Each structure stands twice: as structure tokens, then as C-alpha cells.
Amino acid sequence: MSSLPENGHWSAAEAASALRLGAVSSRELVDAALDRIDRLNPGLTALVDVWAEAAPEQARAVDTAIRHGLRLGPLAGVPVAIKDNTAAAGHRLTYGVTALADNVASRDDPLVENLRGGGAVIVGSSSTPPWSWQWFTTSDLFGATRNARNPAYTPGGSSGGAASAVAAGLVPVAQGNDIAGSIRYPAYAVGVVGLRPTPGVVPGNDIAPRHKALSNQLFAVAGPLARSVEDAALGLEALRGYSPRDPVSVPTVQARGRGRRIGLYLGTELHPLDPPVEDAVLRAANALSAQGYAVEPLTTDVFEEAFELEVVLCFAEYLYSGREHIAEGGEILANGLAGPAAISEDLLGGPLTLDRLLDAYARRGSTIKRAQSLLEDYLAILTPASAQTPFLADEDQWADVSRRKEIVYAQWPSCATPVLGLPGIVVPTDVVWDQIPLGVHVIGRRFGEQDLLDVAQAVENVAGRVPVAEPIPAGA
């Protein structure tokens, strides 16, 4: 018998190291993960499809490969989760939509090929709201996903299941995706690390019932959620890699910045900051300063413009092109889109037209150039992860329209990054608000993921790694 600790208390890095040293087998890791899932997931609804038979078979194959000395990937033998909008051959793929409750994927998405090819053991898929278009994670098909640290608050969305699964130690790393904060906001809401890579770094999901809108092709990315920066880095390495099946996929590229200047942008002209949020950002700034970074207050309107462009090019476009999706998403999706719809109407002065769409795409190019010029002066830019503390559970379903609009404006850090094509990472600080370690957001240059990981690691060096949440099992 190995010296396996209680699952959820080993990081991915520790598990991978123990596997290489022969101190534990992949089968033991996976069995422990499945046991914890069996105990805790019914009270969380973080995973909606558990691979109780397939995962042990994967683990046995990895153990055999390791015994034969085969070189595998950085997460070889480690339990991971994918999201329920990511295809894995022979497994259910519902997108959180009741009409697709019995849909089964015919082949793997490219990132699943990468995970499997590197020996990571997928133990299940995580919950997502209908068509993954909300900062909350509830669906008619599976019900509400609970925040593993405090169920009074949303687990975020749309990768809320991934975030709760990681926080609760069901898996050390989970895959999410992000078009307007769907990795980074759940990481913030549940107090874990969430990395949005540059578009093209991780090949996207290409199996979908319909063609993707242009904004989805350009802005949406897949990336890892984890309880530490080190594990997020391992997750990125396991996920990344060129695929001809993704129209924006690129070979591995790393662009490193120069110097140690960090721009500090609070964005209070976009939305006032809740006091705990501001405290977290300033404590992160102090942590960076103490480790030799030069943190400098930054004045710019580029993120305000980017936020407005994201509302138009992402949300307003989806309100037009995604009408069939929205109908299938039912009342939950319609309610979730009420805030973005009201703001896009305000910004456009009416419905989206072709002229307005083309003008916004033209403005996007100019705004990207301004942002990239800014990042020539700074290694990275530190911002809040959200202007407000985590929202109440399902608040987008029952709040009035003015509050729903406020929720969207509070999300400007999440929204401003995708339209610019930039990577971002959320990392927890030592500011704990109502049991949730509040994170901060760091934005970097295109293909500057390693710089982001380095800056996030410096924050984590002071704050410490977040603990595993211990939610109460269902029925206890």
C-alpha cells in the first residue's frame, strides 16, 4: 500500500512527482479521487458525468506505460476534469442544455487528445450553465452548482463546476474555457487559480451543433483551474499544442517581457471597488513590491473601451446570432443575458446592425494596438478580478434589471481582456472574505503566459497556497 494522503490534499505537482518515484500508482490516485467525488459531489454538483469505469482503465494504461519507461506528459497519471462543453469520445456532451441530455460525443476535442496523449486521467466532466454564457452555474438539466467554500455565493461561471471541483479537492486540475471571464471569474468566486491563455495556445473545442460566431472563434480560449500557480502551469503544459482543427491554433510560442515594472490599474472610473476587493489588490501590489517588482499606478482608458467592445462584439453578437441557443437555454439563459442585453442597447442606442458590428471590429484593432503599446512599458498589469465581492447564488435569476447591469459592469476586468486577445490569470490573496480567499487579476502580453505565471507565483509566495475546501457531504 502506498503512502497516499487523503485525496485533494496532494497537489498535481506532488502527485506527478510521487508517480515518477514509484511511491504511488495512477490507479491509487484515481480510486482516491473517485471516492472523494462519490462523497462530496452530490452536495456540490460540480461534476455532472463521472467516469467511474473509464477512469480506472485509463489509470491502468498509464501505470503500464510508466513501468515500461515511456515518457508521458506533465500530468501523466493525475486525475483531471474537463468541462461539459468539451467533447470526449463516447461520453456525454450536453452543454448544460436539456435538449442535449442524451448527446454523446463521437470524437475527442483537440485539447482532450492532448490530455489523453500525455497520460492525464480524465475522471469526469464539470457543470456549466446553458451554452456557457453566464457568470453563474445553474441549469435546468443538472440544477445549481454550489460554491465549495460558501454555498451562499455563486461558484462563478461558466466554469463554475470546474472551480468548485478543484476547490473541494475532487481533482487538482480542471479544464475550463473563457470568452468573458468564464475561467477567471469562477477562480475568483471560489478562491483558486484560473489561467486564460492567449487565443491559439490551447486548441479549442471544435465539435458543436452549429458553426461558431466570429467572436467565439477569436475570443474564446480553454485553460486550467488549479489550487496553486505551479499546478496551473502544469495544466497549461498538458493542454497546449497546435491543432489544425482550431482556426486560431498556433505552435508553442513564448514571448517574454523585459524588466519588472507592473502597472496597477484599479478601474474605479468603470465601477467603484468594494473595500475587500481594493484591499486584496493593494496587498498583492505590496507583495510584488516586496519581491523586487516596481508597481506603478496606471491611468488609461483602454480597458474601458475594451469593455464596451466586448459587450458589443461578444454579447450583442450572441444575442443576434445565438437565438436558437438562447431559446434552448430557456429562462435561465434569458435571465442571465438580461444585463448584457440592457447594456448593449444602451451602448448601441438600439439593436446591433451590420454597420455597428463592422465599426466595432475596426475599433477593436486600434484598441489592441494601444493595449499592446502599453504592455511594451510594463511586464504585466495588475487589476481587480471583479469590482465586487462574489455575487450571491443565482443572483442573475432574481435581481432587478439595474442590478443585473451592475453585475456586468463589475465584471469589466474579465470582459476587457478577451476582446484584446490578451492572456490573464486570477490568483488568490490572503484577504479572506466570508470564507473565500479573494483573488486579483494579472494581464500580460500575447503569448506572455510565463510572465503571468511568474507574477502570480510572487503573489502566492506571500499569500500562500489556498487550502482545500471541505464542503459538507449531501445528507450529512
Provide a quick synopsis of the model:
The chain has 17 helices and 13 strands. With 476 residues, it is α/β, with parallel strands linked by helices.
Structure characteristics:
17 helices; two-stranded antiparallel sheet; Amidase signature (AS) enzymes; alpha/beta; globular; 14% strand; 476 residues
The third-level CATH topology is Amidase signature (AS) enzymes
Structural class: alpha/beta
Helical stretch count? Answer: 17
Strand arrangement within the widest β-sheet reads 1-3-2-6-8-7-12-13-11-9-10
Strand content: 5-15%
**Rg calc:** 21 Å
Assigned CATH class: Alpha Beta
Order of helices and strands: HHEHEHEEEHEHEHEHEHEHHHHEHHHEEH
Mean pLDDT: 95
Global shape: globular
Give the termini separation: 30 Å
> Total domains, how many?
1
Total strand segments: 13
Helical amount among residues, as a percent range? 40-55%
Residue runs with pLDDT of under 50 for 5 or more positions: none
Largest sheet: 11 strands, mixed
The CATH architecture comes to Alpha-Beta Complex
CATH homologous superfamily placement: Amidase signature (AS) domain
